[in-house]
Each structure stands twice: as C-alpha cells, then as structure tokens.
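Just scan this pair:

***
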Amino acid sequence: MLARYCSPTCQRNHWPKHKTECKLRAAELRDEALFKDPPAKEDCAICFLPMPVKLISCISLPPATISSVPIRDFVEANKEFAGMGTEVYFSCCGKSICRGCAHSFMQSGNMGKCPYCNADRMDTTYEGEIEEIMKRVAVNDAGAMSALADYYYQGEHGLLQDRERAMELWKQAAALGSSHAHFHLGVYYHAEGDSKKSKFHYEAAAMAGNEDARNNLGTMEYLSGNMERAVKHWTIAASAGEYNAMHNLLIAFNQGSTSRAAIDSSLRAYNTSCTEMRSAARDAYIRLSIARIGAR
C-alpha cells in the first residue's frame, strides 16, 4: 500500500516485479497481528470475572508446576464435563452470564428468572426463546447468531438439526467479529480435512482472544514441524489459562524446545490467569455438575 498507480492496468503490469517482496511483507504483518498480546477476555456481566472458553478452567485446584498441570489431569478423569462452555445465553436481554452466576442466582430463590434483567423466564417456551433470538439475529447481534447456530448444529431448543443453517449463522457471526463463531468454523473445517480454512478461522479466533483456538494453532504448527511457532502459540494460550497449552509447553520444555526461564514465566502467567477466573459460585457449579455426571 506504499505505491500509487495511474490505472488498474498499470497496477497489474507492475505486480510481477514486486509480488514476492509484497507477499513476504504481508506474511510479516500477519504474524505481527497474530502473535501480539490478544485482547482481554470478556467479563461476566454479573460477577465481572473473565470468562474462558471452557468452564473447567475455573475449577479450584493446586497451581501448575514444572511437572504437573492439575486441571488437565482433572479433565482427563472427567472428560464428559470437560467441554462444557462457560456461558449461558439469555435471549430476553441478549446477555451471556457465567454458569456460576446463573447457578448462584437460581440457588438464591430466583428460579426461572434472568440473572441480568430479572425477566420472568418460567413460562418461556423453546418457541418463544427462538423467536426472541431471531429478532436479535435480524439486527445483526453476533451473540444471538452464534447461540442460534449452536442450537441448529446440535438440534437443541426445539430445533431440528440443520448443520448447513448452523454454518450460515456462524459465518455471519464471524463476519461481525465473533471469536466463538470463528472457533467453531475452525473446528468444522478441521473435521472436514480443510486445513487452510481451519487455520484461517482459528487464527481469527485466536487474535480475538480465544485461547482454545490458539492452542489448536500451536498443535497444527507442531504437526507441521514448526516447533518455534507452536511454542509461541502455546505460550500465549497458556498465559490466558489454557491448561492443554500449558501441558504442551511442559512437553516442549522436556524436549528442550523452550528454556527454563520461559517455562517459569509461562507457569506464573498461567497460574495467575487461573486464579483470576475462579470464584466460589463457579466452583460450586462445577462440583455439582461433576457430582451429577458421576451419579448417572
């Protein structure tokens, strides 16, 4: 973007003379954006604590050490719960509340009400909820689009499973900057074997602060033989509290791919992030959910 041309024809004629240099510079600029510090996580609208991608990241366990990542060990023993999302979306006000706050609000005697706007949800049917969401989708609410896409993809909330419709909605939400939508598109294309599209959406999600996407990028780079780039991704993700990334970094350290000073710095950042995401309400909900799963 440093040169001006008198016409499109002139611009096209000049391209062969500088395309190699420009492609290299474009890659450099992309990496600068990709590896800079991501934005802070969004906070819960009630407790104002950061919300990670996975709720299990919030569980109160001992700090990670050079030889152990307790949260990951715990996840291995509770895989059915490991993927549970952090948030509950309320279509009445369009707010996403952490599951800890939603649980605490319900336990305080507010059964069937929205924790944010206090709307009575007791008599709201799936049809009514979808109608509310559709109104928000109509005004380009990315959160509503992502929530509706999730419902279509899984066939939940009274909707028939329609993965094509889910993809359409995720693409619309991604165009509006939703990291959640970019992440799910990355997962979808990865499962379809389209690594180029998968990486594009993972990168977009990671730059928007999605630590799960960032960890997956690290794994993709590792499998491609790019250990230096993998360690960069894992370091950023681990610093945001992503336990799989911290585990991967410890493996990289044991293989000699990162220094003791770097791994110590990552451990401090990881443990700090985990501490910042914990609360008594979140911990209570996690423990209750695990107990329910164990009772099945």
Observations:
- The two ends are 61 Å apart (CA to CA).
- The chain has a mean pLDDT of 91.
- Residues 168 and 286 are 32 Å apart (CA to CA).
